[in-house]
Amino acid sequence: PGALVLGVMGLVLFGWGRFFERTEPFVCYFDGSINGLAVGSNVKFKGVPIGSVSEILLRFDESDESANVRIPVVIRIDQSKIQKGADRPVDLSDPKVLQSLITRGLRASLESESLVTGLLYVNLDFYPDAPPIQLADARDMLVIPTLPSTLEAVQEVMNRVVRELDQVDFSEVFLSVE
Questions:
Q1: What is the model's pLDDT at position 86?
Q2: Which of 148, 169, 171, 174 has its CB surrounded by the most CB atoms within 10 Å?
Q3: CA-based torsion, 86, 89, 94, 96: positive or negative
Q4: E strand segments, 6-146
């Protein structure tokens, strides 16, 4: 009887909330490095934790000779944490609802949880200037499209600047200044 009481107490203290959690899986395909992201990392919307990363995979595109790699990241979103007026939850598992949000610019990106530790989280937010994308599904999961992380965008700009500087003939510039 004591073990049964301890088991019930453990269930109540540590796992009871999960019985009432209504999570839905979604997949986000990232093309760049996800170093710092791990199973259990947060999924946030505008800084509010709404879920977690449940699986990270690696997919090679065999049909592409450039050895493209895509990284499917499976996230689970607790639908009870997303509500629309009058405490009604938003049903993200409804493809029509999710497509509407994607059309309005819903995208996933990787952001830094902590600069000290290098940990990342999946950030969901609206990017109205994002190109329109049609809803897709994979392995019975709906796909939330992604954007490059802020760090990836900065690196791309820096690479472009370096390439352009490489094209400048500095000796000619210095001669024209004199």
A1: 67
A2: 148
A3: positive
A4: 23-30, 42-45, 48-56, 59-60, 69-78, 83-84, 88-89, 106-112, 120-126, 137-138, 141-143
Does position 101 have pLDDT exceeding 50, yes or no? yes
What's the confidence (pLDDT) of residue 80? 84
First to last CA, the chain: 94
159 has pLDDT over 60: yes
- For 133, the token pair is 């994308």
Place of tokens 């004591």: 2
How far is Cα 167 from Cα 105, in angstroms, rounded to an integer?
A: 36
Q: What is the pLDDT of residue 145?
A: 93
| Listed residue (83, 71, 76) closest to 33, CA to CA | 71
Q: Give the model's pLDDT for residue 87.
A: 67
71 and 29 in contact (C-beta within 8 Å)?
yes
* 102 φ/ψ sector (left φ>0, alpha ψ -120 to 50, else beta): alpha
Maximum distance among all alpha carbons in the chain?
94
Which residues have CB under 8 Å from 90's CB, separation 6+?
79, 82, 83, 84, 97
Q: Which residue has the tokens 């934790």?
A: 49
CA 29 and chain centroid, separation = 8
